[in-house]
Amino acid sequence: MNPGSEPTALDRAVRHPGYHDSAWPVECGGNRRQKARTGRLDAGSGRARVVTRRDERWHVMAIERDPDQWYLTGTRPAFTGPPPHGWVERIDPETLEPRATSPDLPCGDHVWCGAVLAHADGSIHVINGSYLHRLDPDTLEVLAERRLPVDHSHNGLLALADGTLVTKDLRLEGQGPTTITRLRPDTLELVGDPLVLPEGSMGRIAADLVDAATGLEHVYVPGTDHVWRLVVDGDELIVDDWRARYRPSGADGGLAWDACLSDGACWIMDCGDVESVRLIHRAHPNGRFPRPPGRALSWRRPAPWSAPVRLVRIALDDPTDVRAVAVTGHPGGGIIAPPVHIADHDRAVAWDSINGGLCGFDTSEPDRDPEPVWQLEVRPSMQPVVFPDSGELVINDFTPAGRDEIVVVDLVDGTLIDRVDTGSRIANGMFLSAGGHRDVYYCTTTMTARIVWE
């Protein structure tokens, strides 16, 4: 199997050693961020039922520990006024009601979307702002707490094959270097010194266990101009010679969010540091303002550049092999979530959140640029999920009427299989999670939902 290649259905059944034995123990379903789950959705043969739960919190993502044991995490957003905090709930997988709730978790007063994972040692780890917590999986009591070395919001939290945890702070262009921090899962003590990259980094890290027998593992960090690769060497993280420039010098366009590692390539989209993201991260503490920011935090504001969103493919065996294609070609494009590649179907899927347009690309010829093969006039903003066994992609569509709907799309030809109204009027860039019962968990501000096809 090539580094970063899409696993077969049999491979997907072999769990990563850093995580609890689960089909969805971490954001995007795994460290390669392929967002795929074994099994079929078959949305066209059923009718969708939606269960919702509303409150005043920012819901970020849901993960599964044991079968049907789901955890929901987010932040209590307070852009002004009282301090914010993080939280985790163990929820009923059908009603979404909490079965256990963590204490309010300090976040260093930063307002941003964190992450949660189910670790191989059985515990739950959650990151929010500049704090990391280890929680009891049953009661969600705090077992360990660590204030991270850098006083900025952190995005993304992954477990490596040896069980250690890795995260980083979020830095926009011109805000200095980003810091990668590695920690022990039990005590949350630092493993070695934090690694400081010479560039800032906005997108979340991805990782690839290249060789389980030798323990060779790579960590990919999307910087402001390059995608960097780190090598896990014992207790050290070493900057590899592999480094790919995705932003041409002097180019008009924005930064990359997360990477998807699939079929021997790193897949990203640029144009991600839209005005609302810049506003949040130019404030310190991040996301805290003297007056309510109101519509200034909308991702629908015009992009601060004239370039279109690009889908970028970088070969994992040759960082100079960088191929970029415009997604829709609309000028002033922008996104708040990364793309996905599905090797089983030779498809990459990318979009433009500001202008609208969801596009599928044929990637069957790796020596050629990805070729556009279908486009739908929908406006996605979220991290999607895919069911390769049935060839379906699930993502949101923020409609002209201001409603956030879920669409199910055929990966190969772009056929719109189903459309489901979530009942939300707020769309953001949060995570969809694939359940094991022809269902998907949905997170946004003030609402979470479960959509199940019966």
CATH superfamily: Quinoprotein alcohol dehydrogenase-like superfamily
Alpha plus pi helix count: 2
CATH class value? Mainly Beta
Shape: globular
Give the DSSP E fraction (strand runs of 2 or more residues). Answer: 35-45%
Helix content: under 10%
Global structural class: mainly beta
The strands making up the biggest β-sheet line up spatially as 4-3-2-1-30-29
- Indicate the radius of gyration in whole angstroms: 20 Å
- Low-confidence blocks of residues: 5-13
Number of strands: 30
Average per-residue pLDDT, rounded, comes to: 95
CATH architecture: 8 Propeller
Terminal residue distance: 36 Å
Largest sheet: 6 strands, antiparallel
What's this entry about, in short?
3% of the residues lie in helices and 42% in strands. It is mainly beta.
What's the topology here?
Blueprint: H1 9-12, E1 48-64, E2 70-76, E3 85-91, E4 98-101, E5 115-118, E6 124-128, E7 131-135, E8 142-147, E9 154-159, E10 165-169, E11 179-183, E12 195-196, E13 206-211, E14 216-222, E15 226-233, E16 236-245, E17 260-262, E18 265-269, H2 275-282, E19 310-315, E20 318-326, E21 340-342, E22 347-351, E23 358-362, E24 371-376, E25 385-387, E26 392-398, E27 404-410, E28 416-424, E29 433-434, E30 439-453
